[in-house]
Description:
Layout: E1 4-9, H1 17-31, E2 35-40, H2 68-77, E3 80-86, H3 94-102, H4 104-108, E4 117-123, H5 133-145, E5 149-156, H6 170-179
Parallel strand pairs: 1-2, 1-3, 3-4, 4-5
Amino acid sequence: MKKNVLVITGSPRKGGNSDLMADAFIEGAKSAGHIVTKWCSGEKNIEGCRACETCFSTGKACSFDDDFNQLAPLIEKAEVLVLATPVYWFSYPAQIKAAIDKMYSFYMGKRSLKIKESVLLTCAEMDDMSVFDGMKTTYDHIRSFLQWENRGYLAVPSVHAAGDIIGTTALHKARALGSEL
């Protein structure tokens, strides 16, 4: 069954390791016949949520006009949400975190989502797997709260310079996750 997949990337570094993982996942998902949209939060301007609780009251997801209002229609159409991001200081980079935080607008605005499945693709410079704990815990809480099925979690340690991930099995694994949706 063909699914509408939204891949939100978190790195501002185009062609970096998490971006390459996202592209491999997308290649796999497209090969399986899915419709895939890639949205690069690192290239966008999304401010943090201001907790005004006026979500969708002005005809758009966020009452404050930033690039989240371009992302919101893509979230509404998606059946699968993929977060592909590096670890920044033991958590999500600010760019993708702002987008994740503003997903609150759907809850606040009483808008149901079609998303039923999610995937987390992440990488880090450090080789200690515990560096991913904060990110994975946040991801698990979000998907549990929203009742999304986890379709995959891929954490890749010891990659820093752009392209380091090419020397690992991660791109093959990301491609396989995409094709197995």
